[in-house]
């Protein structure tokens, strides 16, 4: 019997539901809700509130840097990970005949910005999964001297497969290709290291336990000096507005060059609180917890005769466990009627395990599944 690392009573609604939904969005932690209220109170203080916003923004970036070993000044806060990926896609120097490599375990936000580049004569190469797994060689075999960027998720939203991005980056450092890592399905639940990618993106409202409204873009200085966004805003540039602003501008030399204007400060307050909570709990402890519970869940799913898509090897998975099923949406809807929340789409049911999950949650899900799948619930 494994107890939760984070107290369920600290989350709103977990006394009435079983939450396997973090791959989509997190439940609301009471401290995170209080943090959003703190922002509202700061607004009442005029200029002092602005100072508090700046302090929270820096603290938030510092916490994020602590999660993946980076530096706060190399982090930009944007509206979403989709925006971050799109801005990177427009910033990478590309010419007709160049190519970008992605894979078919990617979420649409990691696919569409590259497809849009086809209009510029850029080729998009897609590595194909084998039995829902993705080996680094499957990606590297598509890389040549015209490859300018490789993008991969650390953990697949679809199958829960954890891709060995460290091994991938070791090989890509010897090429002309930059690497963009999407850590949306991993940051906050398993270790992530910015030193093994050129760029990292992540959403705020899933495993990071925050709210909608922010996308994280982290840069690893070294190979990205020439990466200049095609979009520019007042926060992107050096210096206060003056007369010369009508003639020229200079973008910041750090990640601020990707920030066009103010971030969503309610989200910043929430994200600062949530990331502090995760750091205090310890990512290594959270990883051990979710891998152990994931192992329990996979054993029980296999005992039910279900097709598990997620690798059994703990080194090849994180918090997501997926089963293949043609009636995935129907199964998820029936479970939701009994206040058990999973994701059902893309012909798979996905259960996401976080620090607040315990063995009782696993038992509840697996006890309901047979009747739900067989149409008895």
Automatic annotation (TrEMBL):
Gene3D superfamilies: Aspartate Aminotransferase, domain 1, Type I PLP-dependent aspartate aminotransferase-like (Major domain). It comes from the Bacteria. Keywords: Aminotransferase, Transferase. Pfam families: Aminotran_5 (PF00266). InterPro entries: Aminotrans_V_dom, PyrdxlP-dep_Trfase, PyrdxlP-dep_Trfase_major, PyrdxlP-dep_Trfase_small. Residues 20-343 form the Aminotransferase class V domain. The keyword GTP-binding does not apply. The keyword Protease does not apply. One of its GO terms (molecular function) is transaminase activity. PANTHER family: BLR3095 PROTEIN (PTHR43586:SF15), CYSTEINE DESULFURASE (PTHR43586). This is Aminotransferase class V-fold PLP-dependent enzyme. The lineage of its organism: Bacteria, Bacillati, Bacillota, Bacilli, Bacillales.
